[in-house]
Every structure is written in C-alpha cells, then in structure tokens.
Write a sequence for this structure.
C-alpha cells in the first residue's frame, strides 16, 4: 500500500489545524501538528519545551533541530498516511523531511501540499477570537463556539487564549509565514503536487472540498 502524505500550508489562523483534524478523522491517517507537539512539551516543562517556549511566545520559529526531533519521533507511529500541520516551515525542514521520506517510505509514496488560502485580514479576525483547550481542541467564539461558554465540549476543561494569539505576535507570525513558509510551496507547485483550497468558506464546506480534491487525485 502506498503511503499518502498531505502537508497543510497556510498562514497562522487559516484553519490548517481544524482541517487537518477533520481529514484525519475522515481518513484514519495520523496527524502530526508540530505546534501541538511543542505545546505538549511546554506543558510538560521538558528541556525542549522550555527552549521552544522562548521562541514561540515571541512569534518566532522554534529551532529547526528541535522541530525535526519531534517529527522523527511521531513518524515512528504505524499509519497508512500522515497529515502534517505546521511542518515544514523552513527550507532546511523541507530538505530534512524529504530525506526522512526517502528512508522511511517506498518510492511510490505520494506527497502532496495542500494550501489553505486566507487573507491576512481574515487571519487577524480569526485569531483574535480563537480559544483553545489544553486537550488540543480549538474553538472560535463566533464560527465554531463551544456548547457552554468558556468550557471544552470534549473534556470539560477551561478554555484559554494562546499566548501567541496577541495582535503584535500575530503580525510577526504572519511575516514569518510569508517569508519562510510560503516560498516552500514552489517546490510542490513545480511538480504539480500543490492543491489549493479557498479557506474563506465555512469549515464544513472546506472539508468537503478537500475530500473531493483528494478523491479526484485517487488519494482516498
Ligand atoms: P491554524 O491551525 O491554521 O492556526 P486553526 O485551525 O486553529 O488555524 O483556526 C484558527 C481559528 O479560526 C480557530 O479559532 C478556528 O476555530 C477558526 N476557524 C477555522 N476554520 C475556520 C473557517 N473556515 N471559518 C471561520 N473560522 C475558522
Ligand atoms: P499557527 O499555524 O497558528 O501559527 P502552530 O500551532 O502551528 O500555529 O505553531 C505555533 C508556534 O509553534 C509557531 O509560531 C512556532 O513558533 C512554533 N512551531 C510550530 N511548528 C514549527 C515548525 N515546523 N518549525 C519551527 N517552529 C514551529
Ligand atoms: Zn478539552
């Protein structure tokens, strides 16, 4: 069975995490979200977490080597497909990932990038109203609210604002995405392995479009 690898790209707040989660549920593929992995390390106060936190709270990228070590650990899981959310974010990370793929998977593996296209203006609006739970579930006050105000539907935990979802930090994260992350899309575009999705639609509609496009490509 060929392994499928879908890499979500998009600015912070474009809905990558939300869509990666829905796609993982739909396909049974494993989702690897480096942001979630870092937040778990920070919560557990590991050495890597303490280091990464210094960068993350300023909206800067965590060091490449720390990031790749988390990814390598996650790739040891057994799965017929992997969904990346928030990785790779630098040219170095993309190169490392291709080396890992060439070692871990057979030649007929299919690697696609999926770009969720959302304007900077919409991103700022969304992140201002993002609320999260320690269990990893993500909400939006207007578009994807919890059933009870301030409380997670899944685990009953108290919702909070991510400490990098502050206006100044958001502006910096957007710059970092346009400078370091977005140019990586060229690599996939040149090989006709770039799927573009309009991210300024309802969550369910975007999910349906993603499923449709993956079916067209016979990935699912
Ligand atoms: P990312 O992982 O790209 O940073 P998230 O999936 O966390 O983005 O989404 C950012 C915020 O926007 C969250 O509050 C989420 O609930 C909300 N959101 C996600 N997709 C949509 C959408 N299509 N329309 C409106 N809000 C959305
Ligand atoms: P978003 O897409 O909403 O910005 P993520 O949850 O994907 O957020 O990431 C949060 C933060 O974690 C990033 O701003 C960055 O500091 C760090 N991070 C996540 N993934 C990576 C990565 N691949 N390389 C370096 N830093 C990362
Ligand atoms: Zn929860």
């Amino acid at each position: 069975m060929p392994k499928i690898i879908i890499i979500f790209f998009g600015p912070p707040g474009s809905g990558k995490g939300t869509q990666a989660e829905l796609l993982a549920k739909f396909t049974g593929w494993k989702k690897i979200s480096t942001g979630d992995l870092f937040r778990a390390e920070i919560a557990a106060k590991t050495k890597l977490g303490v280091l990464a936190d210094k960068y993350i709270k300023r909206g800067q990228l965590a060091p490449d080597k720390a990031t790749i070590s988390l990814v390598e650990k996650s790739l040891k899981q057994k799965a017929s497909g992997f969904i990346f959310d928030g990785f790779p974010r630098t040219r170095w990370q993309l190169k490392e990932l291709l080396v890992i793929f060439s070692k871990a998977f057979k030649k007929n593996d299919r690697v696609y990038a999926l770009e969720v296209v959302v304007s900077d203006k919409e991103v700022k609006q969304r992140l201002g109203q993002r609320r999260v739970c320690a269990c990893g579930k993500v909400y939006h006050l207007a578009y994807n609210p919890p059933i009870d105000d301030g409380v997670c539907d899944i685990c009953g935990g108290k919702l909070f604002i991510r400490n990098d979802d502050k206006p100044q930090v958001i502006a910096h994260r957007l710059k970092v995405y346009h400078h370091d992350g977005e140019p990586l899309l060229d690599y996939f575009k040149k090989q006709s392995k770039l799927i573009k999705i309009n991210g300024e639609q309802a969550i369910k509609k975007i999910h349906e479009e993603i499923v449709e496009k993956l079916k067209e490509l016979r990935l699912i």
